[in-house]
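Notebook p. 47: complex prediction with zinc ion.
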Amino acid sequence: MNNNFEYQTEQFADIRILRYQVPGFEGLTLNQKLLIYFLSEAAHCGRDILWDQNCECNLLVRKCLENIYLSFKGERDNANFRDFEIYLKRIWFSNGIHHHYSMDKFIPRFSKVYFDELIKLSDWSEWNCDNLNDQITAIKEVLFDSSVLSKRVSLDAENDLLEGSANNYYQGVTQPEAEAFYKQKSEEAGDNRISFGLNSTLVKRDGKIKEDIWSVEGKYAEAIIEIVKWLEKALDYAENDKQRFVIEKLIAFYRTGDLQMFDDYSIAWVKDLDSRIDFVNGFIEVYGDSLGIKGSWESIVNFKDEEATKRTQIIGENAQWFEDHSPVDPQHKKETVKGVSAKVITVAMLGGDCHPATPIGINLPNADWIREEYGSKSVTIENITHAYHMSSLKSGMLEEFSGSQEEVKRAKEYGYVSGNLHTDLHECLGHGSGKMMPGVVSEDLKSYASTIEETRADLFALYFMLDDKTIELGLLPNKEAAYAEYDAYIRNGLVTQLVRVESGKDIEESHMRNRQLIAAWTFEKGKENKTIEKCVVGGKTYFSIKDYKRLKELFGQLLKEVQRIKSEGDYEAAMRLVEAYGVKIDTELHEEILERYKLLGLAPYAGFINPEYNLVRDGESIVDVEITYPNDFADQMIKYSNEYAYL
Ligand code: ZN
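Predicted complex, structure tokens below:
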């Protein structure tokens, strides 16, 4: 790893742009490098699908703004144009007009009048349409009217979730209609547990509800054909038969749109454990749909970090011990934990819903029944967490929001190690633990399903973090390291994550809800025994843990209840718990935190510029794949829009 590597390249609005290194790439074989190269090309080709999924107007808006950006002949060196650039960068970062995290539409800082000037002084000669003026009028409404398409994913359970959501998964369909449609599908299917609706837009035409399937012959065909083209090239470089089979199944799924084949692919993928290179490519996560049915397109190409994987292997080998010793009700536990495969990976390419903002761990497949019968693959993405860690050391956040010098010291010494272990436990064990009661499915918890699931996985990790077992297994050097994670979790759940929420707003995002839920619940339940102490010094509020052992017990109590809710599909209890602890913010504390945070001059969100891979040729033959690390976010976005604009 290059120690002089610059991680952060720029900051704008609430966003920092970072880069990540790909240590170990040079040491791969040419065959492996080529496999990564072709899978990386496939990882770029679905970008426009995601943009269209996020909102129907996104691609038009992006193309319009990019045309201005590239052809505007007016003055660029002024505040107005800089505001325009920031707005475009925010759109690139969010893959659309809505904030990637809060899901709210953001409004430009420049005026409508200035927008008219931008339009007037740009070149539209290559703009392929007869009614430019009508399009501009429509775009203006989208950009400047805050009541239009105001939220990408609504979780406001009091109103129709689909009407409240600006995403493009349902067209002209109400929530009850969509729910009835998929209920009927799964009833008709009987024992067949296909993830109905995962790869389609549900539309109402002439009073009839039907699905537009995303496939080589259906919706998004132009992009999917390209994905398939690169996957076919990748086939030639598969490391072994198992991996070849995985790629073949995925291609078959894209060709037919048949979800049975997606399940076949997922099962084959779970079973492919020996390959060094791995990838995700498809319609995967359902967070972008308030009903949790539709999969957003994403891709991650990666290879195993063999040294760091030893740590997660230890966790995997002891999975049964953890399940047996978890504090949940015996009837909600798995008798046998299957196939917990865990590894640490180095990401080589991010695409679709994993870029520019990216997860730090993944645990797939999502289908509960495949997880129960075949297990799941769980990974920690350590070159990403490392980039975050390196860029955070200089931020001043820790010093500002920690309750004591001791806490700061502990975080600097152990924060990286214990943060990684939390992710491992969350991904390798947390999501895979527990058992559903007969007939219960995750979707029974509706809009609370994601929050409850993340709460469960986090609690499982937190509970065992401070167990003697983690030290015995050599996963942590000592209890201090576990304390560092407890400090960080409570500090984040009650304080620092609130910097991501606008003044006066509720918490919407599932992971944020889950973190506050856990921190606020344990704070309240531990009040009597002073488990966590709240103190105000010089107008600054701090939360300090006074009794770590007692906090561990509280994590265990809550885990037991959350597992019960999940196992029994207790919607009412999920709603009560999430609404009571995960949604509302103490407004006075919130204002104080925002004020303190503002003084630090930081941006709360970060995302990444991808590396680039180029084929090195000697005459006819390819002799190497070269990796470079570009450092200009806008350049990369324009490049992607030029080279991978299929829709
Ligand atoms: Zn998770």
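Notes: The longest helix spans residues 405-430. The mean pLDDT is 95.
Next step: compare against the earlier run before touching the bench.
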